[in-house]
Structures are given as structure tokens and as C-alpha cells.
């Protein structure tokens, strides 16, 4: 494998950490979303049409990116920059940390405004959340999205980069994740149409979600055992087969109770979360992410030797 894959990842990380998210009009994930929205209104709410939607979205995303990079192959620098731009679109480190920090500060300053901002992170009804419940929502989303928005796309990039298909794999994951976020609901009109996208998302996140507890444990050595124990004990409490792993590990590492009213309580014996726990969670996740990025780069470097 050439250094191209390593260079692409380094440039993608630099873009994300320095510039953040690109404008919506040229954001690859926004265009994936537009394709999903276009197909959704033209397909029947059936399982067959849902599988067809998934195939078209994933194939279109992978093929478009593959042939675009191939077409630019004669201009190496341009090919590198476009590949890095496309890869960056599959993860959102700076955005996740910034939004979580902003809402965390607002929970302490103005709970009503925080309730209005929380839908940017969570899908639950935020109108009546207490300070503790709003804080819990921020920390739950931060830890859960570490997998979906960072670890999983990097995992698939590393997995298939030796075959020269790392970028395509990361974008395929992002297409699946975007489908799940747009149509993967159990409402009457989406229960069947979104079934394939939801199940593919569960499958795609299955391994990364379970791997997530390792960097999370290493990020807090003094409570590494507590993080792993909480993940093993409480991961099955959430409706999702994957989100319980990073959220429970985070709860164990921080020794706080995470509570989604009416759905689950993780680490019930933990302390009630306070707004001051959001900065703690952010520092913890920053170390977790740094370890993840370091491990990713190390894996690519070793594969080149």
C-alpha cells in the first residue's frame, strides 16, 4: 500500500480539526441526504422498496466517489485533496465536541434555551427535561456519536484501505448511517421502508461499538475497570444493540448515572449528572478520540512497513 492512504487520512483530520464542517451546499453527506429524500417520496413504504433504496444509495455513493477519484488520478495532488475532502465528510470530530460543549454550557446558563438546542444532538422530547436529564442527554449523545461519527468510519477506512477501498468503505458506512437517521424509524410510513437502512446501521456499528470500550477505558486509567464493567453490565439496557456499549462505558468512567426517561437508566448507582460533568465528559472523550486517531495512524504506518 502506498503512502496515499496515510496522506488522505492526515489531510482529512487536519481539515476537520481546523476548518470543521464544509458548507451544506458542497457537503457530500448533505448530497447523500438529498438522494435519500428524493428516493423516499418516490418509493412505496414496503420492505422491498426499502432494500432497493438502500442498494441505490450505497451503490451511488460508492461508485460516484470511486470514479471521481479515479478520474482525477492523472493529477495526484488534486486526487489527494478530493479524497481527503470526501473522507473528512464521513466523520465530525470538531463539530461533535463544539456542539456538545455549547449545549452543556447552556444547560447551566439557561435550561429553556438548552432544551431548544438539544434536538441537534438527541431525538427525544426535550421540553420537560430537568437539568440532570439534559446533562445526561448531552453526555449520552457525545459518547454514542463517538462511535457513529468517528470510530466507525475510521474503522472501515482502515479495514479496506489495504485493498485500496478505504475511502469507499467509509463513505458506504456514512450512506448507511445517513439512511438510518432519515428513514430508520418505526413510524407507520417508515417501519418497512426504513427497515433495511436501520438493520444495516446496526450491523455496520456492531464491531466498532464493542471496540469503543477499549480506548474509553484507556482514556481513564484510574477507572478503566469500572468503564469496562459498566459496559458489560448495562450495554443491553438500551433499545439499540450498539449505543449501550459506549454510553455505559462513559457512565462507568465518569461514575455518573445516564438516564433517558421512560427508556433506560445506565449505572443507576452512579452520581446524578450535573452541568459541570459535561466538561469532564468532553475532556474524557477528547482523550478517547486522541487515542483513537493515534491508533488509526499507527495502524496505517505499520501496514506500510
What is the strand and helix layout of this fold?
Elements: H1 4-19, H2 28-40, H3 47-71, H4 76-88, H5 93-109, H6 111-117, H7 131-160, H8 166-183, H9 195-211, H10 213-218, H11 224-234, H12 244-254, E1 258-260, E2 264-266, H13 277-304
Antiparallel strand pairs: 1-2
Helix pairs in contact: 1-4, 2-8, 3-4, 3-8, 5-6, 5-7, 5-13, 7-8, 7-9, 7-12, 7-13, 8-9, 11-12
Structure description:
- This protein has 305 residues and is mainly α.
- The chain has one domain.
- It is built from 13 helices and 2 strands, in the order ααααααααααααββα.
- The protein has a two-stranded antiparallel sheet with strand order 1-2.
- β1 and β2 form a beta hairpin.
- The longest helix has 30 residues.
- The radius of gyration is 19 Å and the shape is globular.
- It starts with a helix and ends with a helix.
- The mean pLDDT is 95.
Summarize the structure.
The protein has helices at residues 4-19, 28-40, 47-71, 76-88, 93-109, 111-117, 131-160, 166-183, 195-211, 213-218, 224-234, 244-254, 277-304, and strands at residues 258-260, 264-266. The protein is mostly helical. Helix 5 runs antiparallel to helix 6 (111-117), helix 7 packs across helix 9 (195-211) and helix 7 crosses helix 12.
Amino acid at each position: 500500500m502506498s503512502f496515499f492512504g496515510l496522506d488522505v487520512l492526515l489531510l482529512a483530520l487536519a481539515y476537520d480539526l481546523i476548518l470543521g464542517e464544509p458548507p451544506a451546499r458542497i457537503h457530500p453527506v448533505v448530497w447523500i441526504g438529498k438522494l435519500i429524500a428524493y428516493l423516499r417520496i418516490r418509493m412505496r413504504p414496503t420492505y422491498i422498496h426499502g432494500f432497493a433504496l438502500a442498494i441505490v444509495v450505497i451503490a451511488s455513493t460508492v461508485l460516484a466517489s470511486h470514479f471521481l477519484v479515479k478520474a482525477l488520478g492523472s493529477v495526484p495532488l488534486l486526487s489527494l485533496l478530493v479524497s481527503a475532502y470526501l473522507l473528512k465528510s464521513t466523520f465530525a470530530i470538531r463539530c461533535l465536541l463544539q456542539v456538545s460543549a455549547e449545549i452543556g454550557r447552556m444547560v447551566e446558563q439557561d435550561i429553556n434555551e438548552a432544551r431548544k438546542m438539544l434536538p441537534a444532538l438527541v431525538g427525544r422530547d426535550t421540553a420537560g427535561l430537568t437539568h440532570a436529564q439534559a446533562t445526561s442527554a448531552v453526555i449520552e449523545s457525545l459518547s454514542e456519536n463517538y462511535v457513529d461519527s468517528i470510530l466507525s468510519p475510521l474503522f472501515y477506512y482502515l479495514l479496506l484501505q489495504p485493498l485500496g477501498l478505504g475511502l469507499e468503505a467509509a463513505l458506504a458506512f456514512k450512506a448507511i448511517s445517513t439512511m438510518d437517521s432519515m428513514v430508520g424509524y418505526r413510524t407507520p410510513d417508515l417501519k418497512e421502508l426504513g427497515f433495511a437502512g436501520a438493520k444495516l446501521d446496526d450491523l455496520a456499528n456492531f464491531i466498532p461499538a464493542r471496540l469503543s470500550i477499549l480506548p474509553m477505558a484507556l482514556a481513564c486509567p484510574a477507572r478503566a475497570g469500572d468503564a469496562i464493567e459498566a459496559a458489560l453490565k448495562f450495554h443491553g439496557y438500551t433499545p439499540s444493540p450498539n449505543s449501550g456499549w459506549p454510553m455505559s462505558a462513559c457512565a462507568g468512567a465518569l461514575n455518573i448515572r445516564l438516564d433517558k426517561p421512560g427508556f433506560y437508566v445506565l449505572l443507576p448507582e452512579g452520581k446524578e449528572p450535573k452541568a459541570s460533568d459535561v466538561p469532564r465528559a468532553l475532556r474524557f472523550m477528547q482523550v478517547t478520540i486522541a487515542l483513537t486517531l493515534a491508533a488509526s495512524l499507527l495502524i496505517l504506518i505499520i501496514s506500510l512497513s
